[in-house]
Amino acid sequence: MNPVLVPVVVGVLDTNCWVLHAEGDRRALVVDPGADAAAIASATADLDVVAIALTHAHFDHVLAAPELAARWQVPVLAHPADAPVWPDELAVAARTGFWDAGTATADLLARDPALLVPPPGPPWDGRSTPVVDGEVLEVGPLRVEVLHTPGHSPGGISLLVGDDLLTGDTLFPGGPGLTGTRLSDFPTIIGSVRRLFELPDVVRVRPGHGADTTIGAERPHLDEWVARGW
């Protein structure tokens, strides 16, 4: 059964929220609903969402999760090692008045500080249903394997379904995700990337932001990334 992967690009950082289901089957998994709940709900109007999965708990991957979980009455799945991440996001926003968008923060604040202001109303309580490395999620006839790929955050996960790999912010075209900030670690993410590079060349990398790539296209550059340190 072939998977169908539809990106819904949401939020200030153009996060790829992925809608995953089997061809011809209504049951779906929504991955990283980072904002724009209405757009995500519209994209899934003809589907039966069975769960929401978070590759990690940074604000740009989770903001629409509580609204959509309540709408669909489904669990929010996340790795338990990411439990400190959302409280840290909230603490930074409470102290500074805006979300930490990593290297994009200064540019976004200069463009319009309102872009990073947390939305009104009570924030997500951070509660989730734990998933762990090697666990298999059943989405209709699809089997989605959870891979613990820490480094960008301690509980980062990637999701493997057939020849498609949803990497969140672990692997992008041109290198690993951002490290060097709170709760991140460069050697750890390199270890996670090495693990992903054990997959076949044909595996399509579907990252948390931007364009797709393949394992085969990225693997030859690993030593360059290690040498540059990011």
Secondary-structure topology with pairs:
Elements: E1 3-10, E2 15-22, E3 27-31, H1 37-43, E4 48-53, H2 59-62, H3 65-72, E5 76-78, H4 85-96, H5 105-111, E6 129-130, E7 136-139, E8 142-148, E9 157-161, E10 164-168, E11 171-172, E12 175-176, H6 186-196, E13 204-207, E14 213-214, H7 215-218, H8 222-228
Parallel strand pairs: 3-4, 4-5, 5-6, 10-13
Antiparallel strand pairs: 1-2, 2-3, 7-8, 8-9, 9-10, 11-12, 13-14
Explain how this protein is built.
Strand 2 and strand 3 (27-31) form a beta hairpin. The chain is an alpha/beta fold and 230 residues long. It has one domain: Metallo-beta-lactamase, Chain A (4-Layer Sandwich), CATH 3.60.15. The strands form three sheets. A six-stranded mixed sheet has the order 1-2-3-4-5-6, covered by helices on one side. It has helices at residues 37-43, 59-62, 65-72, 85-96, 105-111, 186-196, 215-218, 222-228, and strands spanning 3-10, 15-22, 27-31, 48-53, 76-78, 129-130, 136-139, 142-148, 157-161, 164-168, 171-172, 175-176, 204-207, 213-214. It is globular. It is 26% helix and 27% strand. The chain starts with a strand and ends with a helix. It has eight helices and 14 strands. The mean pLDDT is 97.
List keywords for this structure.
27% strand; six-stranded mixed beta sheet; Metallo-beta-lactamase, Chain A; single chain; alpha/beta; 230 residues; 14 strands
Low-confidence runs: none
Q: Total domains, how many?
A: 1
Mean pLDDT, all residues: 97
Output the radius of gyration.
17 Å
How would you summarize this macromolecular structure in one to three sentences?
The protein has helices at residues 37-43, 59-62, 65-72, 85-96, 105-111, 186-196, 215-218, 222-228, and strands at residues 3-10, 15-22, 27-31, 48-53, 76-78, 129-130, 136-139, 142-148, 157-161, 164-168, 171-172, 175-176, 204-207, 213-214. By secondary structure, the chain is an alpha/beta fold.
